[in-house]
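User: Hi! I'm working on a homework problem where we have to compare a predicted structure to a textbook description. Could you give me the structure for the chain below?
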Amino acid sequence: MKHYSIIISALLVFSACTNQEKPTNAEEPKSIVATDETVRELQQSLSDVEKEEQRQLAEELANLTTMSIDRKNHDYGKVTEDSDNTTTFRVTNTGKKPLVIEKVSASCGCTTPSKPEKPIQPGKSDEITVVFHPKVNQLGQQNKTVTVIANTDPKMEVLNISAMVVKK
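Assistant: Happy to help. Predicted structure tokens:
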């Protein structure tokens, strides 16, 4: 009985291997031939993409402005661990279009910046507030950056903060 089950199993495996699909004689295309029509379609598509990119660039350039920040560096001096230390950077729109500060981000989780939520009109100013909160045992000289992204050229401005952190 054991021999029959082995033979039947072997036959099933053999028949499964021989029942595979046979390859067709249809050849895979070795190249794609471009017709005049497909070339025109591709050129039109590329032209449409280029026009859209130029339109977006022109729109972006039309909305650019300039800004000045009262200083690029702030030293908190000597601070204790696990303390809140706040400073503000004064941002002035020196251009002719509304200044939109899109994003303000810090290089470290111990630094929390906040940005103006409304556009700053030409000639007006607002503040970016930065809170530095060194963690327990985050001792010694600390140097962090705050990146400001706005509708200006250049698009990005980097602010530097530093502090000497001591034990409580």
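For your comparison, note the following. The chain has a mean pLDDT of 86. Strands lie at 67-69, 73-80, 85-93, 101-106, 111-114, 125-132, 140-150, 156-166. Good luck with the assignment!
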